[in-house]
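Sample pair:
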Amino acid sequence: MINRKEARLALLTGEIGAGKTTAAGRCIELARARGYNCAGIWAPARVGGGQKTGIEAVNLGSGERRLLARRREKKRGRPLGRYVFDPAVLAWANEALKAAIAAPPDLLVVDEIGPLELEQGGGLAPVLGPLAEGRLPRALIVVRSRMLKTLRARLSALPTAVFSLNAETRDSAPEQIVEWLFKFVAE
């Protein structure tokens, strides 16, 4: 059973392009360097030719990477939406999250919860139930600024801190997040 005094939820938020995923990756590195087990899904950009061409999904438990989404092509001069998500990779990512929840890691990472999850009930939405129930000792959730209020309303079971990322906080935020997440863990 999880000790509620140690259970914590960190919400890493910022605008598109603020560096949320990069900061989450740094949090993972810092937590692992301190000996903590991290699991979940981290979603770094796939870059080609100097441009973001897609989004990868990395299973933090196994290290396996898959192409989660690719940039949409323009049709008649207009984009039809920014990315096309691969349903098979979303299913794979949800299975990775389900496995992580079953054997809770020291830190569960979910990158990211956004409109797909909160407005459409798709994507990584299945993780929201276990998070809301407080079934994990610690979690780091990446969320866009415009979705923060909606996510906070859904996840009230754990002590929560919001870390807003911008040019001034980008470098210091990962250390602050990891410190807050593991503040009360017995050494």
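The longest strand covers residues 51-59.
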